[in-house]
Amino acid sequence: MTTLPQPVQPAPDSLDQLTYEQAFAELESIVAALESNDRPLEEALTLYQRGQILARRCAAMLDQAELKVQQLSGDRLEDFPQQ
Length: 83
Fold this sequence. Notes:
The chain is mainly α. It has a domain at 16-72: Helix Hairpins (Orthogonal Bundle), CATH 1.10.287. It has two helices and no strands.
């Protein structure tokens, strides 16, 4: 008898309270679960939807961080030197 892996549980915190790192970690676990191809269709769809929400949240947080950096640097973003 084949046993399916346990479903990925979304973080108990509301989406607005997740840090970037928490949201990204949950997104990574969802991607891994979907890549395993062993989830029932309904669960895969639910995971996909949650993943899309988390991806948008991460992108928005990165956009906000970039805006803050631009404001702090006077709109003069400079590349970091290669080491």
